[in-house]
Amino acid sequence: MENKPYKTLYEGGVGEIVEKKSRFIATVEKIDNEEEALAFIAKMKKQYWDARHNCYAFVAGKNHELQRCSDDGEPNGTAGRPMLEVLLREDIHNIVVVVTRYFGGTLLGTGGLVRAYQKSVQEGLRNSIIIERMQGQLLDIHTDYNGIGKIQYIVAQEGISVLDTEYTDKVVVKLIVPIEKMQKLQEAVTEGTNGNAVYQLGEMVEFASIEGKIKIF
Q1: What is the DSSP string of 49-116?
Q2: Any idea what the Cα angle at residue 127 is, between residues 77 and 19, rounded to 5°?
């Protein structure tokens, strides 16, 4: 069963570059729909009301169904579309970026503008936290103390995240398991513990690893 991770924004950021005295400020934010994107763009235009240009690009949807961009007065095709191409190339979902330009007095030319806007988006992404979300199932494995070592070994070999381990008269290992690994894990644990493991299935969730910690959405 395919369970392809997808990249999305966890925390937006701001990046800035200077090209021939023009300042390019990229502000990145997470969105879920067009309304949120337009509201964020309006907010940035109000914040940077004195800038010559506030160009933007955003994508939303599982397959980037929604794509919008704007040159906001820059020559056609030199800002919005190049910005959008960065987002699509990086395959990041549900994201908006506004690049604010304060003109420095020197014309950059078509190629220079394209490079500057793309570079500023990349700088904004570098200052953001981008994660890979995937689908998994919560699973509790109940076992005795004889089986815990084997379970821990199998879980580590499969690269499965342990959320918690409870020790009482029995041991309960709480996991989040990518759905495509569920059957193999249960077969391996059953064999490794000689059938002395009981499984309690939880809900299906989306999760990601953020700075070494598991976040459930």
Answers
A1: TTSSEEEEEEEESTT--EEEEE-TTSSTTSSHHHHHHHHHHHTEESEEEEEEEE--SS--HHHHHHHH
A2: 45
pLDDT tens string 132-161: 999 999 999 999 999 999 999 999 999 999
Residue 38, class by beta-carbon neighbours within 10 Å (0-12 exposed, 13-18 middle, 19+ buried)?
middle
CA distances from 191 to 105, 140, 182 (A): 72, 17, 14
The overall average pLDDT reported for the chain is: 95
- Say how far apart CA 114 and CA 216 lie, in whole Å: 38
Q: How far apart are the first and last CA of the chain?
A: 21
Closest-CA residue to 204 (of 158, 142, 139): 139
What is the rounded CA–CA span in Å between residue 68 and residue 11? 21
Which residue do the tokens 């699973």 mark? 139
Question: Minimal CA–CA distance to 165: which of 149, 180, 178?
Answer: 149
Q: How far apart are CA 31 and CA 38, in angstroms?
A: 10
Single-letter residue type at 200: Q
- pTM metric for this prediction: 0.85
Q: CB neighbours (10 Å) of residue 171?
A: 19
Specify which residues 28 forms β-bridges with. 97
Q: By 3-state DSSP, what share of the chain in percent is helix, strand and coil, each rounded to 5? A: 30, 40, 25
**Residue 36 main-chain phi, psi, to 5 deg:** -65, -40
